[in-house]
Amino acid sequence: MSANLQSHTVDSHTDVKIKKTNALTRWTKSLVNSKTGTVGFIIVLFVCLVAAFANHLAPHDPAAINPAKMLKPPSWLEGGEKEYFLGTDNLGRDILSRIIYGSRVSLLVGISSVILAGIIGIVVGLSSGYYGGWLDTILMRIVDSFLSIPNILFALVFLTVFGPSVPTLIVVLGVTNWVAYARIVRGETLSIKEREFVRAAKSLGVRNVTIISRHVLPNVISSFIVISTLSVATTIILEASLSFLGLGVQPPTVSWGGILSDGRDYLATSWWLATFPGVAITVTVLGIIFLGDWLRDVLDPRSQGRS
Amino acid sequence: MIKFLFKRILEFIPVLIIISFIVFSLVFVAGNPVALMLPEDASQEDIERLTVALGLDQPFIVQYGKYMLGLIQGDFGRSFRYNTDALPLVLERLPATLELAAASMVIAIIIAIPLGVWSATRKNTSMDLLATGGAVIGKAMPNFWLGIMLILLFSVTLGWFPVSGRGTMAHLVLPAITLGTGIAAEMTRLIRSSMVEILSQDYVRTAKSKGLRDFFVVYKHAFRNSLIPVVTITALQTSTLVGGALITETVFSWPGLGQLLIQAVNTRDMAIVQASVFIIAILVILMNLLADIIYRILDPRIKYS
Amino acid sequence: MAVLNVEDLHTYFKTEHGIVPSVNGVSFEVKEGETLAIVGESGSGKSVTSLSIMGLIDAPGKVEKGSILFEGSDLTKIGKKEYRKLRGNEIAMIFQEPLTSLNPLFTIGNQLSESIKLHQKVDKKTARVKSVEMLRHVGIPRAEKVFNSYPHTLSGGMRQRVMIAMALSCNPKLLIADEPTTALDVTIQAQILELMKKLAKEHSTAILLITHDLGVVAEMADKVVVMYAGQVVEYTDVYTLFSNPKHPYTKGLLNSTPKFHEIEEELESIKGTVPTPTNMPKGCKFNPRCPFAMDVCTMNEPALNETSYDHKVRCWLYEEKEAVI
Ligand SMILES: Nc1ncnc2c1ncn2[C@@H]1O[C@H](COP(=O)(O)OP(=O)(O)O)[C@@H](O)[C@H]1O
Ligand SMILES: [Mg+2]
């Protein structure tokens, strides 16, 4: 019996390996075939590399104030200076360097809060679907409540109470985003709970929370990846909005929303301040959306060609 | 229909209670606001006296009970900054926000319906690519940045529209476009994918086989069907719309709820923050209900049970 | 005179896997008041043929070659507007799926009077009267009430009756029915076929009946076209087809239909499946499944030849005989 089992595991192991390499080539192929997917992948990879190597890539110290170089236009415009490719801000800081460093906060907040949201969503969805009853009712009403408060509003209230900082931002954006995950996990848990093997396990006295979570997660993983990707995009916008309102990332930490907020006061004279950080946000978010759309097509064949 | 409405309205009650609980807990955690209410040179005794007078020294559950009791009577607390009841202040700002939201919705619909239908009927042509590409870019652009760019172009450079404020139609144009673009982008994508699916349905082929003109086939037989998912999903995005309005108002100094709220957040005027959250939540819930009603009108297959 | 004359029709789909020749050189004619049946397994190109006649092939599909003569004018050459005038008026079509072929958001009356208003240029009131009359005519009880109801309140059989009412409302010269009874219960099937037969006779409407069921063919048809992999493999009148089938595929179809096989035990289905358009065998398209396949069958494609009067077959078995004679 045990030998049998073992050989079975070995078999399935090699099986998995073969499947994995096949999947890899299949994915690469499909990525190359999808133009927007390729573009999205390249953009996202580029932004990640920029964030990782910001200190090597940035031509200037993003915080270095230089009163002699205030509000210089981009180097390729009249009056621009060669070393400031995208011009300088009201304190003479290099915009390009600030944008390069700003990518760090955007990605950090975007990705970590989505991970946090995923964890909350799994816990809530599993307990809601598994225990059912009044717990489910209450949790689902909480989900409804979150759906009727705009994310940004919730974040504003939260940040007012706990004060703006990067960790608070991650927590608050995580707490505003978990709803979507909770719903899928709950649905999947409900359907798996009814299956024969889970019932059998229950009658044998096995703790079936373990079983269910082991079966739920593989089934929701693809929806998870797609939602997470697109969620990173909206979170980056949300973070920038909050920073723009002065309630997000606080100086001296550089963020795209923050640069934009500074630039808003100099719109009449120095348009580049407010323009380039916005371009950075838009391009990054666009890349993530493209990547997410492609992932959805690959992971969910039903949606193929829909969008 | 009445029964259905009644049932739906009953469902709101727990949601509103939960919202009140979340908001109240947050404010409770925020700590004693008395120091902010009194002049800076107030003595420690003054602070304590006011704390007791306002009942802020009592345990959480007592305070929450009082708060709920107030809510039921329509008392959302007093704004210490304006020194009046919070609710009238919030309601006073509501029309401006609704005006902006409605105008944006109209713009979004005007852009999204023809564009979505048009690109669905020309699926995979270069024009379709252009339309869907535009929609994705519209979705990727942060609202506030688009607003600033519009100000830069149309107010600062061209001088066509005022930079900020409310009053004339001209004031409304840029904020409405700003807020409308984001919704239009999402809606275009939705309408397109919904239309693409509907256009391949058997009844559309039946309509064509009758010799109807393409226009009728698309707008009579396909479009109404494709609206059903669009209405549902758009309603679910009311909260995004309101969220966008808050930011857009800040960018254009539009004297709506958003502006009041951001001020209140900055001065920690919690009564206004609480009342705003509540009013906005009710607004979102009502929009969802409206969508549910429209949905039922659009689809005769649904029974009011 | 022939109402419809299809000549060497080719309809191709350009897909990402290459060009799919769904209809590949099909010819037949339908005379006034006559019923022509097209039979063949699923995927043989029957629906594409009928949609080509209706002018309803959408991109990526296209009628590449051939002509479709309807009352003498070539439908492949007329403009969009002229085509629309014929559709639903002179040529009408009934589809396979009654459950999904009616728009769920409009009443039966709305959808039925739509084509009457369009083609007969009558006002709303007249269209209504005519529609209700049409509903009665196709045997729908409480026609007034059904006029105002939505499709989801009707059964499949009733909905197919509505479709027939809709198709016949403008007295078409040609009715195309693409598997009109496939989705229905056996008893309802018989009723619907009976109804079609009766109405067609009354108005001497020609019918192009698409089916994969030889029972339906025996019931309804005057002439039969047997299609395989986008081509006509046998074409004759219904008596000849059943008494003297020639193509091995036709024989196979007959053998696999209980009604037409005397010895119950020998009932057998044709081995294998219809080849996919991108994976067509060389030579005769039926050769991998054919019990009589010869060397020549795997190399060259046979032509559709008239082996005897009004009996055409696409098979090397008969070409050789002819050559010998
Ligand atoms: N829109 C389409 N795109 C690509 N191929 C198609 C399309 N419609 C039909 N075909 C192909 O044409 C062939 C014939 O289909 P059809 O006419 O529907 O067969 P049937 O005889 O069952 O009615 C099939 O192989 C099908 O794959
Ligand atoms: Mg078919």
UniProtKB/TrEMBL annotation, chain A:
Coiled-coil intervals, chain numbering: none
Main location: membrane
Keyword Transcription annotated: no
Occurrences of domain ABC transmembrane type-1 (ranges): 103-292
Keywords noted in UniProt: Cell membrane, Membrane, Transmembrane, Transmembrane helix, Transport
Gene3D superfamilies from the UniProt entry: MetI-like
Bilayer topology: Multi-pass membrane protein
Subcellular location: Cell membrane
Keyword presence, Membrane: yes
Transmembrane segments: 39-58, 107-132, 152-176, 224-249, 269-292
Protein family (similarity comment): Belongs to the binding-protein-dependent transport system permease family.
Protein name: ABC transporter permease
Species the sequence originates in: Sporosarcina highlanderae
From TrEMBL, chain B:
Keyword annotations: Cell membrane, Membrane, Transmembrane, Transmembrane helix, Transport
Record-linked CDD domains: TM_PBP2
InterPro entries membership: BPD_transp_1_N, MetI-like, MetI-like_sf
Family annotation (SUPFAM superfamilies): MetI-like
Bilayer-crossing regions: 12-31, 100-121, 142-163, 169-185, 227-252, 272-295
Domain ABC transmembrane type-1: 94-291
Family: Belongs to the binding-protein-dependent transport system permease family.
Full protein name: ABC transporter permease
Organism for this UniProt entry: Sporosarcina highlanderae
UniProtKB/TrEMBL annotation, chain C:
Domain of life: Bacteria
SMART domains tied to this protein: AAA
Compartments (UniProt record): Cell membrane
One Pfam family named in its UniProt record: oligo_HPY
GO molecular function: ATP binding
Oxidoreductase keyword on record: no
Major localisation: membrane
The keyword Magnesium appears for this protein: no
InterPro entries the UniProt entry points to: AAA+_ATPase, ABC_Ni/Peptide_Import, ABC_transporter-like_ATP-bd, ABC_transporter-like_CS, Oligopep_ABC_C, P-loop_NTPase
Residue ranges of domain ABC transporter in the record: 4-254
Membrane-topology annotation of the record: Peripheral membrane protein
Keywords: ATP-binding, Cell membrane, Membrane, Nucleotide-binding, Transport
CDD domains: ABC_NikE_OppD_transporters
Family: Belongs to the ABC transporter superfamily.
NCBIfam families, sorted: oligo_HPY
Protein name: ABC transporter ATP-binding protein
Organism name: Sporosarcina highlanderae
